[in-house]
Amino acid sequence: MHAYRSHTCGALRLADVGRSVRLSGWVRRVRDHGGLLFIDLRDHYGITQCVADPDSPAFAAAEAVRAEWVIRLDGQVRERPADTYNANLDTGEIEIFVEEIEVLSAAAELPLPVFGEPEYPEDIRLRYRFLDLRRERMHRNIVRRSEIMTSIRRRMTEAGFIEFQTPILTASSPEGARDYLVPSRLHPGRFYALPQAPQQFKQLTMMAGFDRYFQIAPCFRDEDARADRSPGEFYQLDIEMSFVTQDDVFDAVEPVLRGLFEEFAEGKPVSQRFPRIPYAEAIGKYGTDKPDLRNPIEMAPVSEHFRGSGFKVFATLLDKDAQAEVWGIPAKGGGTRAFCDRMNAWAQGEGQPGLGYIFFREGEGAGPVAKNLGPGATEAIRAQFNLAEGDAVFFVAGRPKVFAPFAGQARKKVGEELGLIDTERFDFCWIVDFPMFEWDEEEKKVEFSHNPFSMPQGGLEALETMDPLEVKAFQYDIVCNGVELSSGAIRNHRPEIMRRAFEIAGYDERVLEDKFGGMVRALQYGAPPHGGIAPGIDRIVMLLCGEENLREVVMFPMNQQAQDLMMGAPGEVSPRQLRELHIRLALPEPQKQV
Fold first, then answer.
1. Is the pLDDT of residue 315 over 60?
2. N or C: which end of the chain has fewer CB within 10 A?
3. What sign does the CA torsion over 470, 475, 480, 483 have?
């Protein structure tokens, strides 16, 4: 028999009754049932119940073992009494009568529980991540992640894509987030950068004549953590295609994502069509370019109903500011004063002056807004949103660029509070027609709004003749349940268009040559029209595992301060290492205690 096991802890069934077996694993828990000791033994594959009675030669050893000890045991497979079958376990119809136990490794007192799913401080969980990963939910998430990545590779290969690897040590890029820099020992004073994404390399792959590229690529960005963004590193499904239009990219990506989600959605419906929503429309209807389409609420302008009305707050605002608008947020089922007052209080808690509202009862609109607005305009608003008795509508006013994010939050809050969101489904959409440029208020200049390598709609003529802030790009995002999975674009494959686009954004020819010289040179030697996208693996796994934080689906994540508490990174290095790299530290002065 094998030194450690003849079977795994998830393998034995009724057909194995009577067999002598050997199992090894972790003691999940020990239960004392009046002289009978039950040991739940766990390994990667499952759990097997093992039992020792006072007549067993292993009884004394069984009394000594504790949770999370690693043991080997030998015994006989027998059927459980029918009334003790455990339908929640694959091995729930059998148990092992223990004849011998060997302790392979004892465990000290645990700094956090492994059995069950209790809430525990994040710093403890990350410091002892190897223990945290023993928990059933975490173990399941990491296995699911591997299964999802395997499925992605299979689907991409079947779709005619070839997997390539791009460099990890590369040059720093001036756009995007902060780079992680790596000092060069052989070239003092010079630095590599870890890639924020394989953007330039995948485009160069197309220019080299390869047609359909993909890679499950590690990306590195020195930015703050968020629930949907890990600090330090993350993985994305990097895709690039030659001789394609925007529609071709959509047609290639949609079946992969739809099939992937259907495979792992555990029966939840997945949208069969991915609607294409222009960026401006998304902001106007949903207040965000990452709309959750499971929420049926659609906002709309109602400025004309307030212009010159008796509701002076909005009427005066519209009269004085030509850029001001009033938007309505319909709330079917929200037509009570208590709910409307609760939403108003929530808005004030978000730093807003309040949230105007009308609610409908007894055949008319009620509340301060309706009283001042008058029955005619109130009825027009009701008809515009197709509202009925027991419904309500909320209002936000000002310049849309300023209030749109709050309006989107209010839409989400109303949907959640009224139970309008179907949480048991996956709804996808494309956001298209992003502006090529935006105004940087802090720098007082035009800047790229999305991806500097994108093709402007209208090409060079648009860049030469249009207001830059009016130019749209062949850029797109794919969104699922309010989570942005990816950005993508049809690339700018014409050097003269790239030069003009960078010129508009304030980058002179020297910067373009220094930072993107390889790209510009490649474009001069025959570049195919090409485009791509890069859905985030971590976010896909997060959605399919039903988690709300990426750290629940990443094996060894950093904390919010970009620290690896388990391995002690980032850490200090020796003076010798610094000398080899020709680096001298200039650390900030410690703050004085007051």
1. yes
2. C
3. negative
